[in-house]
């Protein structure tokens, strides 16, 4: 089932949004993994997996302290997504996802599974609000790292196939009341509805040659291949004892006879 990639600058409200989205999807989506459950049973919601730094687990200050740590963190997040992504599970990736190349890799993973994919950009407009949110929590970014990650964020562009469908959500700072100062924004519940529509009504990207899953060989394929090879060798060695160059002989597993040209030894 679908992959939902949440991206945004540090301390912009992504995790709060993600937890709410997971609960919303569990209530709204049927659960194909539990066909025998009744509608009133406790675990009737769909299989939805949340992947983020906390699930690794890794502290944000450690996971993004330098380029090497960032690479490891992204690799572990990608591995978690790859492990969870299947036809029966909705995967919500809650992280910075600030590099467009990484978002492209995630898109390719969803494409390989031929499942829907969407990007949710949690776009907090004011950096000072995010900085205050960062300072108020236990797992915080150091000030220098916060500023660095904020400046390096590569905003998603809907024109890029790996960034669409793109759904934007602007959290409301606590200082703002029920009425928005700069025009009406979509509420969080409205954005949840948009995400649900994107993953249930949207068309899954077709797997290309570079992303198509290679067919898996049967567990006994190697054994069967060896058996056929042995039969062929035995047949050829036996028939050449009574054949002359130019004779037509038949061998097992072959639909047409073959021309015997010369005697060959087993090593050859």
TrEMBL record:
SUPFAM superfamilies tied to this protein: P-loop containing nucleoside triphosphate hydrolases (SSF52540)
Basic and acidic residues: bias regions: 178-187
Presence of keyword Amino-acid biosynthesis: no
Keyword Nucleotide-binding: yes
Keyword terms, alphabetized: ATP-binding, Nucleotide-binding
Superkingdom to which the source organism belongs: Eukaryota
InterPro entries, alphabetized: KTI12/PSTK, P-loop_NTPase
Region Disordered, annotated ranges: 168-187
One GO molecular-function entry: ATP binding
Protein family membership: Belongs to the KTI12 family.
Record protein name field: Kti12-like protein
Species, as recorded: Nannochloropsis gaditana (strain CCMP526)
